[in-house]
Description:
This protein is of the alpha/beta class. The chain folds into two domains: 8-194 and 356-427, 3-Layer(bba) Sandwich (FAD/NAD(P)-binding domain); 200-261 and 297-353, FAD/NAD(P)-binding domain (3-Layer(bba) Sandwich). 27% of the residues lie in helices and 22% in strands. It has eleven helices and 22 strands. It has helices at 46-57, 74-83, 106-112, 119-129, 138-151, 233-244, 272-279, 283-293, 302-311, 399-402, 409-427; strands at 36-42, 63-67, 87-88, 136-137, 158-160, 163-169, 172-177, 181-189, 193-195, 212-214, 225-229, 248-253, 315-319, 323-328, 334-338, 343-346, 348-351, 355-357, 371-372, 375-376, 384-385, 388-393. Strands 1, 2, 5, 6, 7, 8, 21 and 22 form an eight-stranded mixed β-sheet that branches. It has a five-stranded parallel β-sheet with strand order 10-17-11-12-13. The protein has a three-stranded antiparallel β-sheet with strand order 14-15-16, with no helix packed on it. Strand 21 and strand 22 form a beta hairpin. Mean pLDDT is 90; it is low at 438-442.
Amino acid sequence: MITFVPEPHLLDSPRGRAWPRPPVPAPVRGTVPATSADVVVVGAGPAGVAVASALWHHGVRDVVIADRTGRPCGRFFGRIDRLGQRVLRSPYEHHPGVEGYRDCELLDFARLHWGRLTPTERRQIRMSQAGHRSVVPVDVFDAYCDHLIASHHIGRKTWQARVREVVPEGDAVTVRADRFSVTARHVVLCLGEERREAPDSWWGGGSAPAGVSYWDESVPVGGQCLAVVGAGLTAAHLIAGALAEGREVHWVVRETGERYQCADVNSSFFRPEGRLRFNRVGWSERLELMSAFRRASIMFEFRPLLERAQAEGRLVVHRGAAVKSIGPGVGGTTVVRLAGGGRIAADHVQLALGTTPSIGEGLLPGEALSVRDGWPELDERTLAHVRAPRVSVVGAAAAMVLGPAARNIDGHRVATTRAAAAIAQVLQGGRLPAPAKTAVGV
């Protein structure tokens, strides 16, 4: 049996190239949107951009987008740059653009800028055209998102705000933010995911102590030894960055071994037959599938890099080691104590414990938010909340309808196709369909 292990150079696409970018109007500070709109989209990440682009093609132009940064995809790319990430795990066919309309898709966009790509990046495009796995440079995806934002007039519809409440009121929904309120005929929640916090037992709960940070926070400059806790792709990026800086790295993998695979989800779930397989089973079976097929893993390209560092003694891997506690050590170090008596003393500890979907808790009132086993109950045809049919969901929170792939960029596009069509139908004089719950069975 031959195991295919791509070379690490695929991870080294340039970042920050001068792409020809269409003008994107800067948000006007101090202004607020109109008090009413057809649709309010909460969140301007890739999911929010996908929704706004699709609504534009459906003729729905009266849209207000509320985002914590005020810049479409700002938080998404900010997190990527903090990790030093240069390529996406998603292939070219996974993108937030609109399919079925005369629009530019991600692969089309990359080919239009062929002369700006490296030979390695061009080979990836050829592989994508041949139906093989491909790797998308962050730079290409960033420029493509700017293209979507400009061509669908998303920038001028985006307002910086922290949404406090989403209140369904009969045939309308009021979105209350820190700077304004908007009443809309429909709301789409594109809330993304938040980092998973460490267990209280590690240091007694609360904020991380000195010497400890999460993957989306800054790390102090200096120090020769870094400890990284986590088993997924984020941990791999943190480790690669620290090794490139010449640091010794201790990697705490809370499984017996690393998992390398092309996608973080079994590829069958990206295809219609995979989603059909998920839809045909009951709620308990769906929970089992989510647990089995949504596990932390690392891109194949990292394996040679990490194995070489381990052989050279620059990387120490603690496999299957559960963290017991994290606290201060001698001489300003931070100590990670492992079950079984192991002990790691490092200058700093970074936690990459994964993420959890934001499902609208704290925004929607309790009577509108029906939660089961941590997931919202949604209409399978429209992705609207069963108890709030004018509030739809696109993104990770739709996973119990679309399967594990809902948390990926391709899942955003699939969810957007359903939600945008249903919203446009209602806004153009149709009726809301009778609710259909996510899954039957126990």
